[in-house]
Design goal:
13 strands; binds alpha-D-glucopyranose; mainly alpha; 14 helices; about 425 residues; globular
Length: about 425
């Protein structure tokens, strides 16, 4: 791959804008329901005013480039949502009074308590704690937060691995964070055409699920099998979480590092044994108790690249056959959330629903580090270069048209500031 330098002026603009977003999205106060002090970065002032689980874990990583103390604060605030049984909700609704629109059916959220949801998101927090430790060497901080993250990982194992195969399930599409991804269309009874129909179908599907889950415990919900996906991205992040906990436990002298490592390897092995398709050269999610492979090509089919111990031959297939394939993922502004070869690919956001084609910076961030770990430094560099160019054109938005870099969705979007980590890793401002 021909190496092109990152445009330093573009990087400087993106860097400044990302820092501005992290500062202006900060929300501080005292909750009117439990008197807890909150202080975190919300995903978007106009669209997402609360604290979201995986968003905050990404914000913490981006904040390391601003001030490590703010990164620590972000994750600490999130962990205030940890429940005695280990559960952590995907949304902590710190300030409900100012945001009544979130309590209408259109918002499609399922509450457990008036102030947090009954939904999970991928456990990025472990990776985030690892990055905070790498930047600060603050062992006391690790010891403070580790038990809550570990308890959530154990909750996932206990409640969401019903068939005990080391792969956890999501029980509604937004638990992967990939809300309306077309890989869930069949189970959600969503029609991809005409595009105006998709959102209404998806909302109907969500409310159907909410009806079934109402008044049931988490344990009961997980056993219903009305929607259950062993999602490849979710399980990659889950495996990566055990890897990070094993490493942290060793580093700061906490017990059971070997046990965490064993869990990491088991989930990696299960992804390879059950989700890897040797013929296609990608991973597929498994749907339902029957574990039907959901053969819709999205970026999540490449996601195990994020695991450093993925066998090299598998990593090579993912990268050379798919990630760098111009008919699938290697578009002008990669990585699109859905491969361009899929009939449901909607790069121009005509469906007005999420994860159906546009490029997202958190996916690029994971894949960037995966490429680097697996020896594809040139591809990683090019991915960072195009991500920075995309944000220089499109702004710090929720997602982007992979053909034109046009910014779409929410403005001033929190995790798109992960670009700060890419800029730092590539030394794009140096010189
Ligand atoms: C959207 C995304 C989800 C994210 C949330 C807040 O719903 O699909 O992944 O956590 O917005 O940014």
């Amino acid at each position: 791959m021909k190496r092109q330098e990152i445009d330093r002026e573009a990087a400087r603009r993106v860097d400044a804008e990302a820092r501005r977003v992290l500062a202006t999205n900060r929300r501080k106060g005292v909750s009117d329901w439990d008197g807890m002090r909150y202080d975190f970065v919300c995903p978007s002032p106009t669209h997402y005013p609360f604290q979201w689980f995986w968003d905050s874990a990404f914000h913490a990583i981006a904040l390391l480039q601003v001030d490590p103390k703010l990164a620590q604060q972000e994750l600490r605030c999130l962990m205030q949502g940890a429940q005695p049984d280990g559960y952590i909700a995907h949304m902590l609704l710190w300030d409900t009074k100012s945001n009544p629109e979130w309590f209408t059916p259109e918002a499609c959220i399922r509450l457990d308590q008036p102030h947090f949801t009954g939904t999970i998101q991928p456990p990025v927090a472990a990776r985030s704690l690892e990055r905070i430790y790498d930047a600060t060497q603050d062992a006391a901080y690790v010891r403070e937060l580790f038990p809550k993250i570990l308890a959530f990982m154990k909750w996932l194992d206990r409640v969401r691995d019903v068939d005990r195969d080391a792969l956890v399930t999501i029980i509604q599409p937004d638990e992967s964070g990939l809300d309306a991804s077309p890989k869930y269309d069949r189970e959600m009874q969503v029609e991809a055409q005409p595009p105006e129909r998709t959102l209404a179908d998806w909302r109907r599907g969500m409310h159907r699920l909410f009806g079934v889950y109402a008044n049931k415990t988490h344990e009961e919900q997980a056993k219903l099998d009305v929607f259950s996906f062993e999602d490849v991205m979710m399980n990659t992040i889950y495996a990566d979480g055990w890897r990070a906990l094993a490493r942290l436990a060793k580093a700061v002298g906490l017990p059971d590092a070997d046990e965490h490592e064993r869990r990491y390897r088991r989930t990696l092995d299960a992804l390879l044994a059950k989700c890897w398709d040797e013929k296609a050269g990608v991973f597929w999610d498994l749907s339902g108790a029957a574990e039907r492979p959901a053969r819709v090509l999205t970026f999540t089919s490449l996601f195990p690249l994020a695991l450093p111990d993925l066998p090299e031959a598998v990593a090579r297939r993912l990268v050379e056959d798919h990630l760098l394939n111009e008919k699938e993922f290697w578009l002008a502004y990669p990585i699109p959330s859905v491969a361009a070869s899929e009939p449901s690919f909607d790069p121009g956001w005509h469906t007005k629903t999420t994860w159906r084609g546009p490029t997202w910076v958190n996916a690029n961030w994971y894949l960037y580090w995966g490429l680097r770990h697996h020896g594809f430094a040139d591809a990683a560099h090019e991915l960072a270069r195009r991500t920075i160019a995309m944000q220089a054109k499109g702004g710090i938005r929720e997602f982007y048209d992979p053909r034109t870099a046009e910014g779409q969705g929410a403005t001033s979007f929190g995790w798109s500031t992960l670009v700060l980590d890419l800029i730092a890793a590539e030394g794009a401002l140096a010189g």
